[in-house]
């Protein structure tokens, strides 16, 4: 049971059924009350019509035994005097309730009270006048052995010779009871059938609507089990939320596949890059252990420094990949460019004061990497320009070397990429400098692009939002 109602389809079906059930009960109750009220109103109108007909005859002086409404065909009739004594009643009336008197046999007529002392006097009427108001009540009566429920109407009349009289006339409620019972029976039979139809339709519709979700779930379970991130979940052609979910899932899988592949390639390349300096350093140390006089101390120090730089680069890339956010400190790019260019041969700086928000250390690392790359490829000169363009700070680093081919201007920002395959690692580095520079630029909300410089060499432009 817990597993059944743990499904979206079961909860949707139960919810829809409950909502329809509440709506049906409310609507059914309203219909029954309205039907009963209308039928009771019609019975009251019929009873009032009969009572006023008898009251009109009494006002005209018709004797009790000549009243036309006492035959019992239209319902029970009672005529009470001002003391609530029965003075006239329908023929064959055996029992009555719901009126001011339960008497069924008239008493001998008495002289009306002259002082009008009445325990239940109504409105003051002139002789021959009929009250414009009618009182209604529910009761029952037995006429000629047949018992029924009635709606009674009471009308007062002032006669010339018999004083103040009250006429009760009843109309049967059998039609009301029958109609209400019929409507209730129809509801008791029809509502469960309708709820069953609603539940079945909701179950089928939700199953069809959620079928793509089940396909997505199965495919995701298969991807998890096989660890094959190249697989994709099926995308339905419904152009609805589920189709968008499948599309987003595939986009997530593609991004995850790219990230995992990049991570694997990064680990493989890092292992390869680390292997060389470690192997060289180990070899030198083993030779020094056996033959101390052959120790190449400068080479060991150089390998150690290169190993240290590579480890620092890998650590920075790992922090960037982990989503490390830069600080919001203000950094003067002009001053930072002059600091990084200081002591470098052939580097000139043309800078105007520009401030950006970010990490001074990371932005300094970007400029250092760009200057290292420019000096490595320049023939004689490297130029650094810092300027402001609109809402962006622009740092351009240009050299007078051979430049970067058009087809490689994006590839050089990939990790461990070297365009010159013949260049040694000692001269060219590990191929991480430009990758780190671009990652830092992106983390600061900027861009780093490669193009052709004024002297024909490479031009790297760093664009960052102003502080």
Give the beta-strand count. Answer: 13
Q: Beta-strand percentage? A: 15-25%
Number of domains: 3
Q: Percent of residues in helical segments?
A: 40-55%
Indicate the structural class. Answer: alpha+beta
Count of runs of 4 or more consecutive helical residues: 8
Radius of gyration, in Å, reads: 52 Å
The outline comes out as rod-shaped
**How would you write the strand order of the largest sheet?**
2-1-6-5-4-3
Mean pLDDT, all residues:
84
Low-confidence stretches: 113-119, 421-428
C-alpha end-to-end distance: 60 Å
Main β-sheet description: 6 strands, antiparallel
Order of helices and strands: HEEEEEEHHHEHEEHEEHHEE
Written description of the protein model:
By secondary structure, this protein is α+β, with helices and mostly antiparallel strands. It has three domains: 1-223, no CATH class; 241-321, Signal transduction histidine kinase, dimerisation/phosphotransfer (DHp) domain (Helix Hairpins), CATH 1.10.287; 330-465, Histidine kinase-like ATPase, C-terminal domain (Heat Shock Protein 90). Helices cover 48% and strands 18% of the residues. The chain contains eight helices and 13 strands. It has a six-stranded antiparallel β-sheet. Strands 8-10-11-13-12 form a five-stranded mixed β-sheet. A two-stranded antiparallel sheet has the order 7-9. Helix 4 packs parallel to helix 8 (433-443). Mean pLDDT is 84; it is low at 113-119 and 421-428.
């Amino acid at each position: 049971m817990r597993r059944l109602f743990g499904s979206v389809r079961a909860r949707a079906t139960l919810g829809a059924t409950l909502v329809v059930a509440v709506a049906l009960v409310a609507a059914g109750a309203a219909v029954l009350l309205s039907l009963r009220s209308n039928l009771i109103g019609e019975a009251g109108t019929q009873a009032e019509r009969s009572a006023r007909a008898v009251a009109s005859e009494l006002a005209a002086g018709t004797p009790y035994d000549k009243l036309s409404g006492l035959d019992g065909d239209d319902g029970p009739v009672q005529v009470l005097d001002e003391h609530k004594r029965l003075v006239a009643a329908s023929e064959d009336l055996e029992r009555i309730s719901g009126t001011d008197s339960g008497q069924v046999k008239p008493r001998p007529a008495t002289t009306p009270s002259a002082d009008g002392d009445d325990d239940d006097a109504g409105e003051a009427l002139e002789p021959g006048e009929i009250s414009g108001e009618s009182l209604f009540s529910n009761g029952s009566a037995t006429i000629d052995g047949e018992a029924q429920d009635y709606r009674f109407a009471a009308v007062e009349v002032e006669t010339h010779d018999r004083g103040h009289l009250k006429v009760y006339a009843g109309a049967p409620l059998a039609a009301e009871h029958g109609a209400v019972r019929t409507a209730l029976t129809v509801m008791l039979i029809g509502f469960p059938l309708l709820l069953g139809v609603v539940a079945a339709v909701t179950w089928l519709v939700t199953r069809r609507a959620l079928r793509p979700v089940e396909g997505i779930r199965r495919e995701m379970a298969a991807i998890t089990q096989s660890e094959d991130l190249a697989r994709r979940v099926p995308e339905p052609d419904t152009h609805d939320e589920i189709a968008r979910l499948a599309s987003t899932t595939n986009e997530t899988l593609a991004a995850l596949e790219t990230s995992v592949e990049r991570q694997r390639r990064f680990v493989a390349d890092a292992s390869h890059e680390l292997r060389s300096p470690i192997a060289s350093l180990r070899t030198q140390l083993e030779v020094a252990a056996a033959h101390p006089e052959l120790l190449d101390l400068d080479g060991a120090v150089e390998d150690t420094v290169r190993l240290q730089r590579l480890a620092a680069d890998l650590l920075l890339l790992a922090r960037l990949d982990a989503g490390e956010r830069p600080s919001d400190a203000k950094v003067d790019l002009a001053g930072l460019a002059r600091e990084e260019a200081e002591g470098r041969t052939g580097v000139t700086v043309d800078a105007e004061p520009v401030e950006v928000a970010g990490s001074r250390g990371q932005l300094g690392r970007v400029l250092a990497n760009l200057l290292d790359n420019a000096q490595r490829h320049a023939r004689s000169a490297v130029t650094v320009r810092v300027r402001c363009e609109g809402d962006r700070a622009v740092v351009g680093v240009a050299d007078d070397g051979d430049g970067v081919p058009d087809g490689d201007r994006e590839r050089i920002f990939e990790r461990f990429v070297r365009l010159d395959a013949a260049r040694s690692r000692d001269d060219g580095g590990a191929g991480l400098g430009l990758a780190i520079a671009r990652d830092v630029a992106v983390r600061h909300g900027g861009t780093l692009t490669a193009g052709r410089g004024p002297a024909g060499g490479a031009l790297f432009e760093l664009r960052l939002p102003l502080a």
